[in-house]
Amino acid sequence: METKQDFTTLVEDSRTFDVECVRSALEFVNRATAGDAEPAQAFAWAPAICIERVSRAGMFDWAMSDRVKEPKPELSLRIARQFLLTLSYVLPPDQKLIDVAEIRRWLQRPENVTRYSKLPWQLDRCDFLPLEPGKRKPAISVPMMSDVGSCLTYALALLFESDWGLAERVRACRYRGRSGDEPVHYFLDYRTDDAGQLKRGTPLAFCSSEHANRYRQQEWRRRHAAKNRSLGKQVGRRVRR
């Protein structure tokens, strides 16, 4: 993933870093459910940021990995589905974005339970307070983001703690591919204005303008086809008369 934020902002601003972590977690899920061979690339930006944070915090005895390890291909989908199942407990009750019943059925299949029962879910994190006289700032988190499990666990911790209201901003893109039944694509609708305040307005229904355009084209074709079928039936009835 190529982050839209610059290196310095990600290092120095806690909210920017945390928002990007949750976005990357959702991107990992999207990649894994779509069959991407390297879903952990969603977190490719993170190790360098964490290493710089460790250096600035003076924690030189804490060794940090310079990359996020890819899970075994057969594990990626299982990890993504377990993440979504846990996420379903964090989302507001009125947001029915995740098919919990379907995920549970998949996770409870004998072949999945026996082969993938042990997964890497562990969070190592250090929070330190920036010391600036006369200023109050939140603690800076330095998570050990060396594998997908630790990255996703940190994202879940952020969603549970809800320091930035992230859980309320998780969305499911309405576009489901050409067939209309491809895996749900999740994204974070977290937009800020020039002053750093959350933008108000209608929640986004699509993750990108490209998906919005494809969805509208798809709906136009569906309505057009339905209209043609209706006209065809009317013509057929007139001919029979």
Overview of the structural elements:
The chain is mainly alpha-helical. The protein has a domain at 7-171. The chain is 47% helix and 6% strand. The strands form 2 sheets. A two-stranded antiparallel sheet has the order 1-2. It has a two-stranded antiparallel sheet with strand order 3-4. Helix 2 (14-33) crosses helix 7. It is globular. The chain starts with 6 loop residues before the first helix and ends with a helix.
In brief, what are we looking at here?
By secondary structure, this protein is mostly helical.
SSE succession: HHHHHHEEHEEH
Oligomeric state of this protein: single chain
Which segments are poorly predicted (pLDDT under 50) over 5 or more consecutive residues?
none
Average pLDDT across residues? 79
Question: Could you give the topology of this structure?
Answer:
Layout: H1 7-12, H2 14-33, H3 46-57, H4 73-87, H5 100-107, H6 110-115, E1 125-128, E2 140-143, H7 148-161, E3 170-172, E4 186-188, H8 209-240
Antiparallel strand pairs: 1-2, 3-4
Helix pairs in contact: 2-4, 2-7, 4-5, 4-7
